[in-house]
Structures are given as structure tokens and as C-alpha cells.
TrEMBL record:
GO cellular component: cytosol
Name recorded for this polypeptide: 3-deoxy-manno-octulosonate cytidylyltransferase
GO MF, any single term: 3-deoxy-manno-octulosonate cytidylyltransferase activity
Biological process terms in GO annotation: lipopolysaccharide biosynthetic process
Taxonomic source organism: Chryseobacterium angstadtii
Signal peptide as annotated in the record: none
PANTHER family reported in the protein's UniProt record: 3-DEOXY-MANNO-OCTULOSONATE CYTIDYLYLTRANSFERASE, 3-DEOXY-MANNO-OCTULOSONATE CYTIDYLYLTRANSFERASE, MITOCHONDRIAL
Keyword tags: Lipopolysaccharide biosynthesis, Nucleotidyltransferase, Transferase
Domain of life according to the entry: Bacteria
Amino acid sequence: MKIIAVIPARYEASRFPAKLMQMLGDKTVITTTYQNVSQTGLFDEVFVATDSEIIFGEIVKNGGKAVMTGQHETGSDRIAEAVQNIDCDIVINVQGDEPFLKLEPLKQLINVFKEDDNQEISLASLKIKLTEKEEIENPNNVKVITDNNGFALYFSRSVVPFHREVSYDISYFKHIGVYAFRKHALLQFSKLEMKPLEISEKIECIRYLEYGMKIKLVETNFIGVGIDTPEDLEKARKLI
């Protein structure tokens, strides 16, 4: 299989504009993410897909690869445009605001497709267990529930499942926004109309579920810092 990594990068993020151009040590967030992904050695090619000339220039200036795209509602739509003429089988979507992603979780996602003999999985992604009440209730943390085989049932910013039966021990999982797509599923996704659940939650992978596609979740113990807010940026700087 030919496997590539694409980092969708939008300058005007709604919750934290220009976050990808903020400094982490002596590099910007987007450059740190790009270089960390490239250094894993897992991919035939790595590039940033952006509608921002500022981000495009930042990546090229630092020796990386970038492509310009049009404006899109979701990162997956942006990646679909970027890869439509690229010869590949699997596309890994690494969020530009996840600068500390490690090699092992990426290998886990790739292995999902290597082990999928029937080629029934359209998309694979990561989840991590949440234990703190504040983290579980934080709407910036997308929660995911899965069936016994690890296939996604639903994603939500709300607390799911609702803990009505307090005597029963429930586990909560955060969805980490790193995706691995079959290329044909990604291109199909980009042609599908948004449905009310995706629009309401503003979670793009819900579109796959609404159209009956299978999403495999892999549990990881990876702990990074996704930069959604200025507070997250400060956490990332302390980690550096």
C-alpha cells in the first residue's frame, strides 16, 4: 500500500485564529507538526493542505511540501481536494494543531488497514480514555462510543453515554482527531451532503456514520496537547 500523510491547515480557526502560526519554542505550531510527522518515516509523502498563503509560505520556507486548496467546511473536504490526483491507497489526516503526535499511534492506524482483509473499513481513528470529570464534560473534547468490535456508534460534544445507572462503571473516551482513510472513501465523503447531526455537533466524521460507512477506533495511551484554545497553547509550551 502507498501511504501518505496530509495535514489540513486553516489560518482562520474559529476558536483560536492564527493558532497554527503561534510559536512553540523556536518553531511555529504547524512547522512542528509537519516535521514531527515527517520524522516518523512511516509515509511515502507528507504535505500540508491549506487555503492560506501565510501557512503555505511557512511550510515551504522551512523545506516542507504544501499545496493550496480552496476554502472548505471540514479538513476532510480539504484533503480530498488535495489528494484527488495523487496515486495512493491510504491517506492519514494529521491535524495541524496536534504537534506532539508520536509514531506508535500512527502505526496502529496503518495496521488497521493491513489487517482489514475484506476492505470493509472506510476510516480509522484514535480514542483515549478520559478519567477526569472536567475533561469528560468539556465540549471541546469530542466523545466517542463504540461497539464490541471497536466500530464507532456515535461521536458527540455532549457527555455520552449518559450515566443514568450510577452503580454501573462506565468508561468515557475522547476522540483524537487523527484519521486514516481509504482514498476512495475520502473522495466519496467529499461528495456527500452534510446532514443535520454533523451540522449540529460540528464533527465531520459523523457524516460517515450518517451514510452507513464503518469507522474503526483504536484505543491509545498517547497523551499530547491538541491546541484549540490559548490555554492549550500554554500547556504545549510547558511541554516543550
